[in-house]
Design goal:
The structure holds 2 protein chains of 2 kinds.
Chain A: H1 3-40, H2 42-57, H3 60-67, H4 78-102, H5 106-114, H6 119-149, H7 162-170, H8 174-203
Helix pairs in contact in A: 1-4, 1-6, 1-8, 2-4, 3-4, 4-6, 5-6, 6-8, 7-8
Chain B: E1 5-14, E2 17-27, E3 32-37, H1 43-50, E4 58-63, E5 66-67, H2 73-78, E6 80-84, H3 95-99, H4 101-105, H5 110-123, H6 128-131, H7 141-153, E7 159-163, H8 171-185, E8 191-196, H9 199-205, E9 208-213, E10 216-221, H10 223-227, H11 232-246
Helix pairs in contact in B: 5-7
The chains are: A mainly alpha, B alpha/beta.
């Protein structure tokens, strides 16, 4: 492998990781608190889950396209890519936060209330620790899919490993496609393994 | 003397279905009053009104002379011990931390909590050095229920609510825990409200039995009076007992 190619792979992999990490962080910062508040507000649950579900069904290339003409969040470049990736990562994180907390044994929740915990104490001492493995599983699913979807970000100038793939498609050069696809696949495997390990640590009290 | 708990014309319903109708009952300080009834008779509903897990639709429940609507529910609940079936222990806490929950919420000092936990574990028959750092999943059903009782007693409440606490245990373990409950009770002056559908358990533990049927209070009687009942729901419960021993 020529040194310039190795260098480019390293550079674009780094860009890819940053893109995914930023999108995942923002999605978690929005998704987890929203999921928590939905456990308290049953009336909003259907609407919010419905919207995130619909977003999930938009083909990713189309979503990137839709965002380009929008002011502030749109345009060509990394910012638009991050917005689109956040929208995709939101659903698994939000849904797993919701099911994780609602899935806590009702007898345990009732005990927490009956012993005189405030809503906040119940959340931080009982519900979140017990829902943590499920919430982390949501983050893990989001991470793996975002790593894949992020390759499409190159189509709107978002950079990352997709640059190789689109260039390879344009020049019908499969080695170029592989230079993007293989590191992306390895990244996804690494994220899955790493987050899975953390998840198992949390599952054990 | 003022009753520890008083239900005054309490009604409650869910989705138009009446669960409790014009319920009146006084629980005297220091007694063990058993709410006996079939499934759906409203006994658990009545119990959960005492620590404000449920609020009456009409009427009032008085705890220490004050209606639950006027209590701060958080403070009220911290003063009342609560034991439920399957214990409802926190699976991510050790036995010691489970027992320490309410004292911790009340801001007791560390040393006082540790001493209290060890004392309670010994009193419910779980040697602290062996059980303190175990997790609930490492305990048998009977041991979990013992921890549940210790947790309810931790902050020295004067009032105990027990919702079929021994219902999920095998008959032998249940008998053991019932006997231990009687032994513990002889050492304190707490008021207990105890829910069960097991007439045998009611007769063994109660100072008085309140029999509920279809959301109404049918009779309030001492175990002796209850055994002498000749009619109504009480007779049905007693007949079930006799049928079994004859079979």
């Amino acid at each position: 492998m020529p040194a310039t190619l190795a260098h480019e792979i390293a550079e674009l992999t780094g860009e890819h990781i940053v893109l995914v990490a930023v999108a995942l962080s923002i999605a978690s910062l929005i998704g987890i608190p929203t999921g928590i508040s939905l456990t308290r507000k049953e009336a909003w649950r259907g609407a919010v889950l419905g919207i995130t579900n619909v977003v999930q069904t938009i083909p990713s290339l189309a979503l990137f396209g839709f965002l380009i003409p929008l002011p502030f969040i749109g345009g060509i470049g990394k910012r638009t890519a991050v917005v689109a990736l956040v929208l995709y990562a939101l659903l698994p994180i939000l849904r797993n936060t919701l099911t994780g907390i609602l899935g806590v044994d009702p007898a345990v929740v009732e005990s927490a209330v009956a012993m005189g915990m405030t809503d906040r104490q119940r959340l931080f001492r009982v519900e979140l620790p017990l829902a943590a493995p499920t919430i982390l599983a949501g983050v893990r699913i989001a991470a793996v899919t975002t790593i894949g979807t992020a390759t499409i970000a190159a189509a709107i100038g978002g950079g990352g490993l997709g640059v190789f793939i689109f260039r390879g498609l344009a020049s019908v050069d499969s080695s170029e496609i592989l230079a993007g696809a293989v590191p992306a696949a390895l990244l996804a495997l690494a994220a899955d393994g790493g987050l899975g390990w953390i998840e198992r640590r949390f599952a054990r009290p | 003397m003022e009753p520890a708990i008083a239900f005054r014309d309490v009604s409650y319903g869910i989705r138009g279905k009446e669960v409790l109708r014009h319920f009146d009952l006084e629980v005297a300080a220091g007694e063990t009053l058993v709410l006996l009834g079939r499934s759906g008779s409203g006994k658990t509903t009545a119990l959960k009104m005492v620590n404000a897990l449920l609020t009456p639709i009409s009427g009032d429940v008085y705890v220490e002379g004050k209606p639950t609507r006027e209590w701060d529910p958080i403070l009220l609940r911290r003063r009342i011990g609560y034991v439920i079936q399957e214990a409802g222990l926190f699976p991510h806490y050790t036995v010691a931390r489970n027992v320490a929950v309410v004292p911790q919420l009340l801001g007791w000092e560390r040393d006082r909590i540790d001493a209290r936990v060890d004392d309670l574990l010994s009193r419910v028959g779980l040697p602290p050095e062996e059980f303190r750092s175990r997790y609930p999943r490492e305990l048998s059903g009977g041991q979990r229920q013992r921890v549940g009782v210790a947790r309810a007693l931790a902050a020295e409440p004067s009032l105990l609510l027990m919702d079929e606490p021994f219902g999920a245990l095998d008959p032998v373990t249940r008998r053991d825990l019932q006997l231990e409950f009687l032994a513990l009770r002889s050492t304190w002056t707490k008021t207990s409200l105890f829910v069960t559908h097991d007439v045998r358990e009611a007769l063994a533990l109660a100072t008085r039995i309140a029999l509920l049927h279809g959301g109404r209070l049918e009779i309030v009687a001492t175990p002796r009076e209850f055994l002498a009942e000749k009619s109504g729901e009480a007779r049905i419960f007693l007949a079930a007992l006799e049928d079994l021993s004859e079979a």
